[in-house]
Write a structure and sequence with these properties.
Helix content is 34%, strand content 12%. It is built from seven helices and seven strands; from the N terminus they run E-H-E-H-E-H-E-H-E-H-E-H-H-E. The chain has a seven-stranded parallel sheet with strand order 3-2-1-4-5-6-7, with helices on both faces. The mean pLDDT is 98. Bound molecules: nicotinamide-adenine-dinucleotide and magnesium ion. Nicotinamide-adenine-dinucleotide binds next to helix 1 and helix 6. Pfam families: adh_short_C2.
């Protein structure tokens, strides 16, 4: 039995700052991706998954869990994140599964379609699509939020979801699962994350609508909405650096979550166990109330 208030007492978000997208290997107190804990039981045997942002954080924990449940996994990530992606490839292969590495930029429209084509070619198909890659940069005043950042946040978080799903649809057989990563920010937007929070609300609405459209085809669309989770995103401009030591303390559990605590939600929504779960948002947020 686990007391969730005591779990991860040894991992403390530190006030560190990383350039670019940030690396898991750049976190001083390492995030838990479930490397030493996740045990599979064949829940995704023979499945073929594509995960964007699969090199680190929540996407990487999900990739490890999917592989240990029996799925082959393709990972999309930025070229600067190659070292993190190589490490996750090793863990997928240790689980006896195939890993496909697809570096590139989700703001490049052609890339969103390419990753689908390359996954289908390398794995012989696609039946789980996890749209998890995301951009989050805090800006305190709207006057300082540039048009470029506003557009890039939407291009990464929203346009890429639309484009990747659109490219994937011709390949997805009945029984497939599409899962997007939203956020508590969709419901409780921070004053300094106006662009980011808006993309997450858009993701929720997009998925609720699309879920109804695709259900008759046997394709289920669902969303995971994390609360504050200790990942590179937060140390690479996602939060003001000086606020990181308190990161997650506002939750009823009083601590930040770890990527390993998210992966089971994605496994559930990907597997046939959730066959009657459609257009749902699964909140993994330490107890913060949501509508
Ligand atoms: P992370 O930094 O480990 O993962 C985000 C990934 O997005 C990066 O690894 C990168 O590969 C990818 N990415 C960003 N911009 C990209 C681009 N232009 N092209 C290609 N890939 C790009 O951090 P994470 O926290 O695990 O983030 C995963 C998802 O979870 C994101 O959608 C994020 O918004 C969401 N989320 C995170 C938290 C949190 O507290 N960490 C909370 C709610 C939601
Ligand atoms: Mg990363």
């Amino acid at each position: 039995m686990v007391d969730p208030t005591k779990l991860y007492a040894d991992i403390d978000p530190q006030a560190i700052s990383q350039d670019g997208p940030g690396l898991d290997s750049g976190l001083r107190d390492k995030a838990d991706l479930g490397e030493d804990s996740y045990r599979g039981s064949g829940r995704l045997a023979g499945r073929k998954a594509l995960i964007t942002g699969g090199d680190s954080g929540i996407g990487a924990a999900t990739a490890i869990a999917f592989a240990r449940e029996g799925a082959d996994v393709a990972l999309s990530y930025l070229p600067e994140e190659q070292s993190d992606a190589d490490r996750i490839r090793g863990l997928i292969e240790d689980a006896g599964r195939t890993a496909v590495l697809l570096p590139g930029d989700l703001t490049d429209r052609a890339y969103c379609a390419d990753i689908v084509t390359q996954t289908v070619e390398a794995l012989g198909g696609l039946d789980i699509l996890v749209c998890n890659g995301g951009k989050q940069q805090h800006v305190e005043k709207l006057e300082d939020l540039t048009v470029e950042q506003f557009e890039e946040t939407f291009a990464t978080n929203v346009d890429a979801l639309f484009l990747t799903v659109k490219a994937a649809l011709p390949h997805l057989p009945a029984g497939s699962s599409i899962i997007a990563t939203s956020s508590i920010q969709a419901y409780q937007p921070s004053e300094n994350l106006v662009d980011y929070a808006s993309t997450k609300a858009t993701i929720n609405t997009f998925c609720k609508g699309l879920a109804q459209q695709l259900a008759p085809r046997g394709i289920r669309v669902n969303v995971v909405a994390p609360g504050p989770i200790w990942t590179p995103l937060q140390t690479a401009g996602g939060q003001p650096t000086e606020e990181l030591p308190e990161f997650g303390e506002q939750t009823p559990l009083g601590r930040a979550g770890q990527p390993a605590e998210l992966a089971p939600a994605y496994v559930f929504l990907a597997s046939g166990e959730s066959s009657y779960v459609i257009g749902e948002t699964l909140h993994v947020n330490g107890g913060m109330p949501t509508p």
